[in-house]
Please model this.
Amino acid sequence: MSTAEVGDDVFGEDPTVHRLQEFAAELLGQEAALFVPTGTMGNQIAIQIHTRPGQQVVGESRSHVFEWELGAISAFAGCQPLPVTGIKGHLTWEAIEAALNPPVYYRSQAGLIVLENTHNMAGGIIQSPEGMEEIIDGAHQRGIPVHLDGARVFHAAVALGCPVSHLTRPFDSVMVCLSKGLCAPAGSLLAGSRAFVEEAKRARKRMGGGMRQVGVLAAAGLVALEEMIGRLPEDHEKARRLAEGLADCVGLTIDLDGVQTNVVMATLQRSNSSAFVEFLREQGVLAVPTGAYEVRFVTHHDVSLDDIDQAVRVIREVLS
Ligand SMILES: Cc1ncc(COP(=O)(O)O)c(C=O)c1O
Model:
């Protein structure tokens, strides 16, 4: 980062940003990519470009775009969410099609479908390429574009043992995060056709996301994409160890089949997740309460296997 070659990226003059964008587009099997400050901004730019005000945005009911983006779909794009509940986070075209309004002028029409891979709130579960393609085919037949919230799509790719482009190429647009598991301090990429990315550049500037000498961050993004993807299995191993270490705990349940990547969702017997997480924090274990009964643990580069064993001890102690 300290030796990154930089320029004014609003004028398209930052060579490190160009390198990152070109590398990402190639990796994702898309024509072009744009560096954006956050995953939320990437998703929201895509939603604004694909839709018109008054349309619906379809997604799994616990999607990030519905639960964690503060109503931006309505506030910025003027659209209404159409949440469809999946089975353990998995949607099917059949379920989506059943939720769509008939194509009559007096009912709101779906302007976009957003899929999430891995699905965060479903516990980091992996969406298969076949399942996603079935939805994309159905959507395209009805003229509906499909965006991928791929904040953690590299986790899905390494777990499936396939190139990430197998999971990202069929989409009309894709957002991926460089922070989170890939360890960059900040930054995400929004990829799609050249025309889409040109439009996205305008939307990014309008939302205040045009950054100047941002090659310092893009340099970290290049390390994320070039060096860190191959290390994600380490995080998956840690998540499995945590889940198995807690599997027989009294007071908490974990669906071991649902632990597929770096997320472990625990369901508490009592609705005290905030207090539980506070007790854990006092003992040096960090987690997030994601529902009255639900706590989310995430493993990453800065947590060692020994830390996991320590976390298991602390969680057991707090529960007892
Ligand atoms: C699935 C998913 N999409 C999008 C985002 C948004 O990323 P950011 O925090 O960079 O806005 C997150 C963040 O946690 C996420 O989990």
